[in-house]
Every structure is written in structure tokens, then in C-alpha cells.
């Protein structure tokens, strides 16, 4: 294919989401409510620290309060759960984000599930997953929601398409599979034990890369005209797809960086504002 | 293929499960606990009445108490939820089964989600679905669990196989997809909006029919040597697969009746006994 693919510009999509949010934040403030996202960072992982800082900055640029909780690497599961519980009970906090991954000695699932569903704006709780899978979650997992937001922004059809998801994590591969299924895609979920991955990916109309391995998805796996969504974000700003090669075949593709990433953050802010709006409605 | 397929005998698998359960029921009774499954039937649907009766009889044959709650067709969602709440609070009830489907005016999801997770032996709650999807449910949805029990009884490999699920309901298609995925199958989920279904099914090493349409899956869709699991149970004891034609190609196949059905009931009893055991351990 000599035709250039459509570059799915995550900056453009996130700016569109944030412009709408700015209006809502203003309206909330006039009602005396300032949306507040609490972020919890456990330990010293530099990438995680960067993500939390980016999310905090994005909040502040929109007038959303960013409440930062930083816990020591040696924090126990119980201590982390207590910190989350405190945020659950704080009426001024509308959303809680626990930065993934936490140190290995912590039970991350137990910590995630301590977050009250009403404040689970990152969409990481067990209950939130199934609400999402059944189509009625208030806050679907942010990266999957971002992927769908990008497709919708560009009017890329989902119904009847064959979507192949590479990866099966509880906060990315599994929820995006369920969301695309609920939008009437036929969905195939692949992973490290999948045999003949290239052959399966080559049948996809929509490829979602959610595997966490740099340049893993090869260009010659992509069916000409397929839509490629790269949710990978590996060291050195490298995605899960070999971008140049995949772009040769794709009709549309997200770059890394400035693809799924910024929209994920905008989605997190959107959920936080929605949560704040719900407290006003009550 | 002239070779006869292996008939996956649901009666044999369920007898095996029930023989083990009989011992456990005896042990529980010696400790003063008789397992009890409460079934709720709303309305007059004859098929539903038959299912509930079969489940009740299966309980009684094993010495499990079958507590039958029968509610009028005109029951409201609130009345049904109140009836479930009463069973939740009854310490002598170890499992609660709400027979699907309920009359249209009832919010079935709300009713299912009234069942306490500790008594959700049928595996129908929203929270139970995601616990299952994340691999830590105590009581996975019974029909999906039965499908896996049959495969395990016959030592049919799952890891690395391509499983194609036809159907995406919250109590069958979606949970069986997650369970096969957690067992390291590559999983494709198809449904009414899937294009070129025959082509997708023809790539499957494992076919799960969960669509509720008699003789829907055609024999010439089945890859020679595939394993066919038919969870359909339509009027006149007819499965979702055209049995004779599918059996020509399959290496192993469940008949209808006497395939998945009896194992589903045995699984329900197993979960009820496990729930009773947990009350003794506490």
C-alpha cells in the first residue's frame, strides 16, 4: 500500500475531550464544587512517578485538584488499603487512582478493590470490570475507554468488524475485549500462549496491541486496510507495534507517543469530573 | 473422517461429580449441616418449571434439601428482590438459584445481583462474573464450569488451542470465554453480528455453541478433529449444533441431551455443597 494511513492523533482527541471538560469544571466551580482526583504512588519506580506527575499536571491545567499521596516502597497492603479507605471517606475527593504497578509484596487486587466503585474513575475494581463487561459501568477502564474514544472520534466502524486483541490483562486486554464485543465486533483475544499469532492478527480489521513488548507486532502481520491501536508504552517512548512497518499496511494507526496515552489521561479526567457532577446531583 | 468421534458423556461426568458429592454430603450431615439449595421460579414458563424440577430432584437424590420458592408471573422486581433477601438471610440456605429467564417486566440483572455472593452457587452475579474472569471466583457460572469439567474429565487440552465461542450472554458466552482464556486458550467470541461465521468457526480447535438456536452450527463449519461442546438446549431436546453432521468432523462432541446439561446440574450441586462446607469451616 503506497497510500498513507490516517494518523489517529491522540492529542487532537484529548484536546477535544478536555475542551468540553473545561466548561463542566467551570460549571461545577460555580456550584461550589471543585473536582478532585487523588493519586496514590507507592515506591520509587521512575516511570510510575512520571505517569502520576503527568496526570497531576493534566488535572491542574484543567482546574481539577490533584491530591497526591506518596507512600514508601515498604508500605504494606494493609497500610495502602487504609490510605485508600481514607480517600473513600473524604467527600472532597471524587476519584482515586492507584498507580499500577505497586511493589511486588503488595496485593494489588485487594488494594484496587478497596477503592469505592463511585470513586473508581480509573476503572480498575473487580466489580467495575464486570459492570463494564455487561455494558453498564460508569467508569470503564481508562485505556480501553480511550481506545474506543479514538475510534469514535474518527468514526471508525466497530460493528461487525473482527478485532484482535493482543494481551489479556485485567485493566487492558480483558476490558477492551468486552467493550469491543459490546459494540458488536467479533473479538479474538491472544496472548503469550497463542499459537500462530501472526496468522490470527493478519485476519483482524482492528488490532489492539496491549502486550507491553516494544515493537512486538510486525508490519507483515497487518491486513492491508486494518486499523491499528497501540496501547503499548515501553521504555524510550516505544509502542507495542513496529510503527513504520505497521503504518505501511494500516488504513489508520495510533502513533506512540501521542496516540492512546493522552486520551487515557483525558478519559481519567473526564471520569473524575463526572464523579464530581454526581455528587452535585445527589 | 470415517473415524467415530469420542462422545463426551455428560451422564458419566455428572455421575462422577455426584459420587464425590455424596460422600461430602454425608460428612456434612454428620456435622449437623444439611446442604440446602433454594430455587426461585417466577411465572409459568413450562421449560423453566421443568428445569427447576430437575434441579430439585437432583438435590433430593443426593440428600441436599431443595427449598422451592414459586412466585406468581405478576411478581415485581422489588418483591422478587425481597424474596431473595430473605433467602440471603436464612442461615439454613447455602445456595440460591433464580431460574432464568424471569418475566420481561422484571429487572433480571437487579434480581441476580441481590443474591449474596456467598450463596451465588449458579454464578450469575455481576461481581461473580468478574471474579471468574480474573480467575478467583468461588462459584463460576455453572454451564461454563460444566463445559470445562467435561474437557478436564476427558483430558482434552485447552492451553494453546483456539476456542471459538458462538454466543455472548452474561451467564454463558462471556464467562466461558474468560475461563478458556484463563486456561490459556486463544479465544474468539462470535455472535449475531459476526460476519463470515462459518469461516471463523472452521478455524477452531474447540467450538462452544451457546447461541440458543436449534441445529445452528453446521457440520461443514467444523475443522476435522475439533472438539465440539454444545451448550444449547432448544425445544424438543435439540442442541445448537447439527449433531450428526458435526460428529462427522469432530474428534469429540457432546450430545444433546445428556451432554453439557447434566454436568451443569451436577456443578450446581457441587457449588451448593461447597457453600455448605464453608459455613462449617467458619
Automatic annotation (TrEMBL), chains A, B:
GO CC terms, sorted: cytosol
Organism domain of life: Bacteria
Domain Tetrahydrofolate dehydrogenase/cyclohydrolase catalytic: 8-122
HAMAP family assigned to the protein according to its UniProt record, in alphabetical order: THF_DHG_CYH (MF_01576)
Residues that, per the record, bind NADP(+): 167-169
Oligomeric and partner information: Homodimer.
One Pfam family cited in the UniProt record for this chain: THF_DHG_CYH
Protein name as annotated: Bifunctional protein FolD
This protein's pathway: One-carbon metabolism; tetrahydrofolate interconversion
